[in-house]
Structure formats: structure tokens, C-alpha cells
């Protein structure tokens, strides 16, 4: 067992470490992209404008209503067809395939953003409206109200939900193994097939995911305590 998990030519330890780094990279990229989608979606839903709100509703309903794996398939193969169609217009022949890392980040980011939209929307609505009115009455500009009153409190309310979204995003990266990106699950699958020892490598993958999620839980708990400093507890 230790020889199979060792570093070097005889073991898969270095490949599993590289796969873990890839999982973290995709997760971070997808989560940050998801926050952009989430903020835009929440703003559209709270804008009071019919068309932006309808677009945001379609986005969240569609992405959350179909399996995450299907979202990845649609984006990966759909973008591949789009690339080949565009290359044909440019007079280029050959097979064009989208970058697996880019597709993975965008696909998981879309999923993350659909859930973040509702988390951010609820957090914004949780900020007492009277505080915003008081800030305006004191002569604060809209930019000042947003960055000094709304966003700090919105972040405090949103952090628990965003922690759950991060955990979801982290685990959803396992689905992009279908694009042949060498993250934890893809590496564990290759190692299991090569050594004919699937239990060892899938158990190792489970330990790696558990380690990442445990560290994430600790980090978000610290962030929640920091954001809630000075707030009176009931």
C-alpha cells in the first residue's frame, strides 16, 4: 500500500498531490466566478426591472433544475461544436477541442453562481432597510452606502450560505473528470485501473476530499467569527 502511494516512478503519490492541487485550482476559479454570477443574478432579481429579473430567474431555475454533470456535458461538447463551427467559417480544418480546465471552471462556476445568487439575494434582504435610509439621511452617497453599510453586513449574513456553496463547488469538481482533467477523481481512477487496486485509491481520494472540506469548514468558521465581531449575541 505504501509503495503504491509513494512518490516517484513506483508510486502515485506525486500524481495524487498534483490532482489535489488541480482540484483546489478549479474550485477557487469556479467559486470566484460563481460569486460574480451570483452578485449579478442577485442584483438583477432585486432591481425591480422585469427583463433582468426574468433572465436571472431562468438562469437559477435552469442550472439548479438539471444535474450538474449534464451542465458540464452541455458546456464541454457544446463549446467544442461551437469552436469547430467557428473554425470552419475561418477556413480552418481539423479537430478543435475546448480547454478542459477552462470548461471546468466555467461549468462549475455556473453551478456555483446559481446557488450563490439566492444566498446573496437573501443576505442583501436581511440588511435592515432602516440603516440604509439613515445613511442616506446623513448625506452618504450611494457608493458610500453600498461599500460602508450594505456590503459588510451582507457579507456577514451570506458567509454561512457561501460556505455551503464552496463545499458544493469543491465536490462538484469531481464531475469534471469526464473532461479528462487530471484532478483527484480522474487521477484516482487512472491509478485504480493501472494497479487494479480501486479500493485503495478511491479511499485515498475520499481522504483527500475530507481533508479539503475539513480545512474549508475551519476557514469559513474563522471568517464568520471575524465578520461577526462586535455584533451582540442573543
Description:
The chain is mainly α. It has a domain of 159 residues: MetI-like (MetI-like fold, Orthogonal Bundle), CATH 1.10.3720.10. It starts with 12 loop residues before the first helix and ends in a 7-residue tail after the last helix. The mean pLDDT is 88.
Overall mean pLDDT stands at 88
Superfamily (CATH H level) name of the domain at 24-182: MetI-like
Terminal residue distance = 51 Å
CATH architecture of the domain at 24-182: Orthogonal Bundle
What is the overall shape?
flat
Class by SSE composition: mainly alpha
User: What's the story with the biggest beta sheet?
Assistant: none
| DSSP strand tally | 0
Radius of gyration: 22 Å
Short characterization:
With 234 residues, the protein is an all-alpha fold.
Question: What are the SSEs and their pairings?
Answer:
Elements: H1 13-46, H2 50-65, H3 68-89, H4 100-126, H5 129-137, H6 142-172, H7 184-195, H8 198-227
Tag the structure with descriptive keywords.
8 helices, MetI-like fold, 234 residues, flat, mainly alpha, 77% helix
